[in-house]
Specification:
Number of domains: 1
Structural class: alpha+beta
Number of strands: 11
Radius of gyration: 18 Å
CATH class: Alpha Beta
Strand content: 15-25%
Number of helices: 9
Oligomer: single chain
CATH architecture: 3-Layer(aba) Sandwich
Largest sheet: 5 strands, antiparallel
Length: 315
């Protein structure tokens, strides 16, 4: 299926209200039919909404944010205090948000200056599954940090393949490390069956919850190199003696559209719909949030959901 994990090709412009002046985002559509939503899991006791405005002594927001996503959550990024959620502990497929955990495993291991050779298998893997790709060339030699750029900005499954192969070592051992780290982080409602979010062996084999994804996002954003990568709208790598020239655009269109956005990662599959893990800063305040299955076909809805949540959270 073309673009199973990529956010797709930009189509007509869409105006999405964000509790203020409308801001334009590109829209995209998938012609594929959706599968039924994943079954809900047990819920934790509800947590009262707490807005940053109330913490500052201002009047709290009266209404919940306007959000279409089936699963969503918003937290104070500094304290982890939950501000608002929907289906906080409901398991759902997450698409390429999986790559945040992939990056976290690599970052914890270090050696970001290590040079890796792109195997032909990584290129054929992305082609075989028609997955989102960084357009890597077999035989190119890139540093681990450059491969993180290739994985996180254009959501390159080929780059994820190279990293997983090296840091497993091997694909299956790497996925085992992802699940071991999830267990270490006490993320009991998260499971990975792939290193990149491809729906293998099924659409529901890799899953998480809004609550667990916020924990993964907060952990990844503690690494300055990760924060620097996901805050970029594009990354250009000039040709060198060991590699071709590359230009990678970030699939997160919230960057540049919603002031203060500093990350984090998009995701989509047929079952997952359009998803987004995001963080934004306004003055001293920072919010981190996630939306899962905002729309089965229009990626702009996920960015609109995120914008509405952020505007509400900032008060």
């Amino acid at each position: 299926m073309p673009g199973r994990l990529a956010l797709g090709t930009a189509a007509a412009g869409v105006l999405i209200a964000a509790a203020g002046p409308a801001w334009p985002l590109a829209a995209s559509a998938s012609a594929a039919a959706r599968r039924p939503a994943a079954a809900p899991s047990a819920r934790r006791p509800p947590t009262a909404a707490l807005s940053l405005a109330r913490r500052a002594g201002a009047a709290p927001a009266v209404h919940a944010p306007a959000v279409q996503a089936k699963g969503a959550a918003l937290e104070n990024a500094a304290t982890g205090a939950l501000l608002w959620s929907r289906g906080l502990d409901t398991k759902r497929p997450i698409g390429s948000i999986t790559k945040v955990m992939t990056a976290l495993v690599v970052l914890r291991a270090g050696r970001l200056g290590q040079v890796l050779t792109v195997p032909a298998a990584a290129v054929s893997y992305a082609q075989r599954w028609d997955a989102s790709s960084a357009g890597l060339h077999a035989g190119d030699r890139l540093t681990v940090q450059q491969l993180l750029e290739a994985m996180l900005l254009p959501s390159g499954c080929d780059a994820a393949y190279v990293l997983a192969s090296a840091y497993g070592p091997g694909l299956a051992p790497f996925v085992a490390k992802m699940n071991a780290l999830a267990a270490q982080m006490h993320l009991g409602r998260t499971h990975f069956s792939s290193f990149d979010g491809l729906p293998l062996p099924t659409e529901y084999s890799t899953y998480s919850t809004p609550g667990d994804l916020l924990a993964i996002g907060r952990a990844a954003m503690t690494y300055p190199v990760f924060r620097a990568i996901v805050s970029q709208r594009r990354y250009a790598l000039g040709a060198g003696p060991e590699h071709h020239a590359y230009l990678w655009h970030n699939t997160n269109l919230l960057l540049g559209a919603y002031p203060g956005t500093i990350g984090i990662k998009t995701g989509s599959t047929l079952a997952a719909g359009y998803c987004l893990l995001f963080e934004a800063r306004r003055g001293p305040a920072a919010l981190i949030g996630v939306v899962l299955d905002s729309s089965p076909s229009v990626r702009a809805v996920s960015f609109g959901d995120a914008g509405n949540m952020l505007t509400w959270g900032f008060g």
